[in-house]
Specification:
The chain has helices at 45-56, 65-74, 85-92, 102-106, 144-159, 164-187, 193-204, 216-229, 239-248, 258-261, 269-285, 287-293, 347-356, 359-365, 370-376, 383-395, 400-412, 414-428, 446-456, 462-503, 519-522, 545-563, and strands spanning 10-17, 23-29, 38-40, 59-62, 81-84, 189-190, 294-295, 298-299, 303-304, 314-315, 337-344, 527-532, 535-541, 573-578. By secondary structure, the chain is of the alpha+beta class. The strands form four sheets. Strands 3-2-1-4-5 form a five-stranded mixed beta sheet, with helices on both faces. A four-stranded antiparallel beta sheet has the order 12-13-11-14. Helix 2 links the parallel strand 4 and strand 5. The longest helix is centred in the last third of the chain and has 42 residues, at 462-503. The chain starts with 9 loop residues before the first strand and ends in a 6-residue tail after the last strand.
């Protein structure tokens, strides 16, 4: 099982599966030498990784943290660093920073559709390291030869790219994110099931005897709708039937969306909107959700790093990215522990200011609310309008109040607005845009190309031309936002990685003060418990809360300096220490 000893530290260790179902490892040392192949039985893998991690903390080169790391955490083992070949491959094979992508594009066994990928396998049970079976969306674990070949392709792609420093940072951040996602699921979010039940009961009525039965207040709202529409048997959960009933009652609507219904007036609409709101709560986060997702005082969602094309995370179970604010009070610290909650004020506009080096916009947000700073420039009258204008600039609004206000931003912040305008123009022409660190947008789809071809063909109609213009504008809005949202996701990953690194250095609390629901690795030290785009929550022993808060602040500054060394933009946090999250 063990390799030949070496006087120098192990820099990285590549890990792959053998055809017989065990593992092979290759150790690369600081002096450039490599140990011979190390054969590791599947049953001995946890001990091998623990020993090497304690001695050297190497970077683990493996196919997928999502396939392997949850099992290590369940065995009480955490690691410091990895290179997630699967996630990094998705970035590099699409990145326009990579000059020659053909070797990566040819390695089709590494191509994964992250957005439609099923969750990773459970990290428990008797077959803890029996990974011979297909790993959900991760495929059979790669052999060591396959791992080494892909790692070589990726290193060559980065070294020969137009921005090797940026791409290296992006791959390190993405790989750190793969570890953090598994750790978030292992530690879980401290969750007060009794408070959740109280919130549901107050909103919906007492819990019914079965999932099939509607709670009293939801049933009452449905009854008021049926009465107002004079249809006692109407199924409110069938959009076609509901739409026909509304039209029969004189409500001339083309859909049952709440936004369109709000434009009409009828006695049925107020209880209908109430019904839709309550039904959404029951369906998404009702008692069935509570029974499935909250166990032993923890809510453990399944995160998918890079699950959105911009690099934002997705969720493949539990809906962590769509938790309604009404349920936030159920997120609570264990006795003797605290929650350090922090979100970044106006993350995407600040990222835009940093990318474009727009010193005017940077100054507007320095040490203050960015929207208030825009008002202080006298370009826009109030904060609400400033926010509306900025969102319009990043999402491509051309009409309404946003469309009216965006030109004012162009006059005051020409560099920032020029950056997103150029991204939109490129997208409208079918071009590809790239984030600050190197994640590129998808190519224009077949529908876009078909619309443009039909509009330019002989005999094209006015309808063809309108469709082509509309398709081009939609793609322009996408690429306009892609560069900002994607770079904001990169900043957030750097922030998370720095927080994680500093928290790992905290001393453990006493066993008697542990948060036992957080599992072996995280029960006795502060740890990340929640992440949502620009917000994090750390669960920490009460005595370390103030120090943790400082870590979170410092990490934001370091993440900003890492991506944007000029330091022209500050990343301001709204941070507080509390026992229980609030609705805000």
């Amino acid at each position: 099982m063990r390799s030949n000893s070496s006087a120098t530290a192990v820099r990285w260790c590549a890990l792959g599966r053998t055809r017989q179902g065990d593992f092979e490892a290759l150790l690369h040392h600081d002096d450039g030498t490599e140990s011979g192949l190390v054969e590791v039985a599947a049953s001995e893998l946890p001990g091998f990784i623990r020993e090497l991690e304690l001695a050297h903390s190497p970077r683990w080169i493996w196919q997928s943290a999502a396939a392997i790391y949850p099992r290590l955490l369940a065995a009480g083992i955490s690691i410091a660093r990895c290179h997630d070949l699967r996630l990094c491959h998705q970035i590099l094979r699409n990145s326009r920073y990579v000059r020659d992508r053909s070797p990566l594009l040819a390695a089709r066994q590494w191509h994964v559709d992250l957005e439609s990928e099923p969750p990773a396998p459970a990290a428990s049970g008797p077959a803890l390291f029996d990974l011979d079976v297909a790993q959900g969306g991760h495929g059979q674990l790669a052999t060591l030869a396959e791992v080494l070949a892909e790692y070589s392709r990726q290193r060559t792609a980065v070294t020969e790219s137009s921005h090797p420093g940026r791409l290296s940072l992006l791959l390190a951040a993405e790989s750190a994110g793969s570890l953090i996602a598994a750790e978030l699921a292992e530690a879980g979010i401290p969750w007060d099931a009794a408070e959740h039940d109280r919130i549901l009961t107050a909103a919906l009525g007492p819990r019914p005897a079965s999932y099939a039965e509607k709670p009293a207040l939801l049933a009452a709202a449905a009854a008021r709708v049926r009465e107002a529409l004079d249809d006692p048997l109407l199924s409110l959960d069938s959009p076609p039937k509901l739409l026909r009933a509304l039209r029969a009652a004189g409500v001339d609507t083309s859909s049952t969306s709440q936004w369109e219904l709000a434009e009409h007036s009828h006695p049925a609409l107020e209880p209908l909107l109430e019904y839709k709101k309550l039904s959404r709560l029951l369906t998404a986060n009702g008692w069935a959700w509570l029974d499935e997702w909250v166990q032993c005082g923890r809510y453990r969602p399944v995160y998918v790093p890079g699950g959105v094309v911009t690099g934002r995370w997705a969720s493949n179970g539990g809906g962590a990215l769509q938790l309604p604010r009404a349920l936030r009070p159920a997120l609570r610290a264990d006795p003797g522990w605290k929650l350090v909650i922090a979100d970044v004020s106006q993350l995407e506009p600040r990222v835009l200011a940093a990318m474009s080096q727009d010193t005017g916009m940077a100054a507007a947000g320095r040490d203050t609310d960015l929207y208030a700073g825009i008002v202080a420039t006298s370009s826009i009258e109030n904060r609400d309008d400033a926010k509306l204008a900025m969102l319009g600039a990043m999402y491509g609004a051309t009409s309404g109040d946003s469309g009216r206000l965006v030109p004012q931003l162009r006059r005051v912040f020409p560099q920032a607005m020029g950056l997103v305008d150029r991204a939109a123009e490129l997208g409208e022409r079918g071009g590809i845009v790239t984030t600050w660190l190197g994640r590129s947008s998808p190519e224009a789809d077949a529908e876009w190309h078909e619309a443009q071809s039909r509009a330019s063909a002989p005999g094209a109609t006015r309808k063809d031309e309108d469709l082509a213009r509309r398709s081009a504008r939609e793609r322009g809005r996408f690429t306009r936002n892609f560069v900002v949202q994607g770079t904001a996701a990169e900043w957030a990953l750097a922030w998370l990685a720095e927080i994680r690194k500093q928290l790992s250095e905290f001393p453990e609390c006493a066993e008697s003060e542990s948060a036992k629901g957080s599992g072996t690795v995280f029960s006795r030290r502060p740890h990340l418990a929640f992440f949502l785009h620009d917000e994090i929550i750390v669960h920490t022993p009460e005595g370390q809360a103030a120090q943790v808060a400082e870590v979170v602040r410092t990490a934001a500054t370091r993440a900003g300096n890492l991506l944007f060394p000029t330091g022209v933009v500050d990343f301001r946090l709204d941070l507080h220490i509390t026992d229980r999250a609030t609705k805000h």
